[in-house]
């Protein structure tokens, strides 16, 4: 702990903005991870219940189920099933679900892009802190005696580099978390698209039988 505190103190003023950026990034990461995990779980449970109902062609019951469910998959299917009894064309039902999906995707991606931005900001703060530290170091060396210059310059540069190191230590995890959250969001969107196709196929199958 003493080493960490010493490392932080040696980095100078810009260590604090980097720390705040890291804290904001981690807060967003935790919130998004919990949200996406909950969405995946709710979608999986909802689809397990809906799939046999749709396969049996009981669309009235399916409409009741999705209207009572708060998951994103139910939100999307409710738009399609609402059109199922009113229109005959598959394209109309498909457009309704695509419209719903366009509303869902921004909610899934919400705040995730900020992680990449915060990662870049942490890196830039680290570089800025190092540059300011080097400016201060060379200013101090200019007034130092020749015998002290080398030792003073080496110590000052070492301290200035702490800011860059901390900036990179903050930026790299945020980038990795951003990539993971983006991948998870893509998986959820892919599963929603797959479900919409399966629901459309079930609706079309029973529509053909009705005629």
Automatic annotation (TrEMBL):
Assigned keywords, A-Z: Cell membrane, Membrane, Protein transport, Transmembrane, Transmembrane helix, Transport
A GO CC term attached to the entry: plasma membrane
The keyword RNA-binding belongs to this UniProt entry's keyword annotation: no
Membrane topology: Multi-pass membrane protein
Example GO biological process: protein import
Ranges that cross the membrane: 12-34, 114-138, 150-177
Main location (coarse class): membrane
Leader peptide range in chain numbering: none
Keyword Membrane tagged: yes
Subcellular location: Cell membrane; Membrane
Domain MotA/TolQ/ExbB proton channel: 73-194
Family under the similarity heading: Belongs to the exbB/tolQ family.
Record protein name field: MotA/TolQ/ExbB proton channel family protein
């Amino acid at each position: 702990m003493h080493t960490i505190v010493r490392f932080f103190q040696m980095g100078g003023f810009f260590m604090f903005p980097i720390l705040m950026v890291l804290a904001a990034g981690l807060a967003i990461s935790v919130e998004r991870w919990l949200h996406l995990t909950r969405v995946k779980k709710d979608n999986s449970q909802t689809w397990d219940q809906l799939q046999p109902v749709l396969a049996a062609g009981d669309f009235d019951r399916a409409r009741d189920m999705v209207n009572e469910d708060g998951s994103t998959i139910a939100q999307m299917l409710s738009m399609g099933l609402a059109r199922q009894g009113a229109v005959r064309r598959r394209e109309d039902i498909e457009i309704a679900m695509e419209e719903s999906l366009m509303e869902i995707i921004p909610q899934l991606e919400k705040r995730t892009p900020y992680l990449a931005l915060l990662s870049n900001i942490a890196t830039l703060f680290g570089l800025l802190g190092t540059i300011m530290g080097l400016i201060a170091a060379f200013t101090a060396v200019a007034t130092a005696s020749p015998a002290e210059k080398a030792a003073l310059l080496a110590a000052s540069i070492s301290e200035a580099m702490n800011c860059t190191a901390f900036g990179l230590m903050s930026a790299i995890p945020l980038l990795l978390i951003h990539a993971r959250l983006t991948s998870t969001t893509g998986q959820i969107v892919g599963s929603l698209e797959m479900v919409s196709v399966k629901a459309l196929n079930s609706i079309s199958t029973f529509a053909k039988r009705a005629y």
